[in-house]
């Protein structure tokens, strides 16, 4: 895997700093409320695991699996639910946990979809935000850091299902994905 990496953009220490800050902010904002974290599989699974341990108030967890990219590097714009929530969201405050917001199509779809299910509030948090790539407007309430339009992998994020287990976030060498 390492031969495919161009540059490490966020190492483990930097990621920990960002996630710790986000967790504190979320705990402050939701103290006294019933918070349900909804992790969006598969990409957000690493971030979700770290973030929830930095939120020092009681939280519940659920997961959805969606796909808009498949094996491609371009979003198809069609979001498919591969796994839905296990529990009802009625009377809960939902925080959607994403690893990255790119075109915004996935988050836009999820916000709309979850709004119809009777939650008290819905907000979104993402570790990484690529605003240059946005195709639809989305409200992101907690954003770890903005990144330029480079192809990244690691810390849950894949290319062709590879590299998710890298502990850092890195840019891939273009020759890996430019055919
Ligand atoms: C990635 C990521 C977000 C989405 C963001 O998921 O985890 O859910 O793309 O892109 P968008 O803003 O352009 O919609 P992907 O569909 O690659 O599935 P994965 O999480 O299983 O890797």
Largest sheet: 6 strands, mixed
Quaternary organization? single chain
The portion of residues assigned to helices is 10-25%
Rounded to an integer, what's the Rg over CA atoms?
16 Å
Can you give a write-up of this model?
By secondary structure, the protein is an alpha/beta fold. Helix 2 (45-52) links the parallel strand 2 (35-41) and strand 3. The relative contact order is 0.20. Helices cover 23% and strands 31% of the residues. The protein is globular and about 50 Å long. 1-O-pyrophosphono-5-O-phosphono-alpha-D-ribofuranose binds at residues 40, 42-44, 67-69, 75, 98-107, 158.
Helices and strands, with pairings:
Layout: E1 5-10, H1 12-30, E2 35-41, H2 45-52, E3 59-67, E4 80-83, E5 93-101, H3 105-115, E6 121-129, E7 142-146, E8 152-153, E9 169-172, H4 174-177
Parallel strand pairs: 2-3, 2-5, 5-6, 6-7
Antiparallel strand pairs: 1-9, 3-4, 8-9
Helix pairs in contact: 1-2
Short description:
With 179 residues, this protein is α/β, with parallel strands linked by helices.
């Amino acid at each position: 895997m390492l031969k495919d990496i161009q540059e490490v953009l966020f190492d483990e220490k930097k990621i920990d700093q960002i996630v710790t800050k986000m967790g504190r902010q979320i705990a402050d904002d939701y103290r006294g409320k019933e918070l349900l974290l909804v992790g969006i599989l598969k990409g957000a699974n690493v971030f979700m695991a770290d973030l929830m341990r930095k939120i020092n108030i009681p939280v519940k967890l659920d997961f959805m699996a969606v796909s808009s990219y498949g094996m491609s590097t371009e979003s198809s714009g069609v979001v498919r639910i591969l796994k839905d929530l296990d529990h009802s969201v009625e009377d809960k405050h939902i925080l959607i946990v994403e690893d990255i917001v790119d075109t915004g199509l996935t988050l836009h779809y999820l916000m709309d979809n979850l709004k119809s299910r009777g939650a008290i509030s819905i907000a979104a948090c993402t570790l990484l935000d690529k605003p240059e790539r946005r195709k639809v407007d989305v409200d992101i309430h907690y954003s770890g850091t903005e990144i330029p339009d480079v192809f990244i992998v690691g810390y849950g994020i894949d290319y062709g299902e590879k590299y998710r287990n890298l502990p850092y976030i890195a840019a891939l060498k273009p020759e890996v994905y430019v055919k």
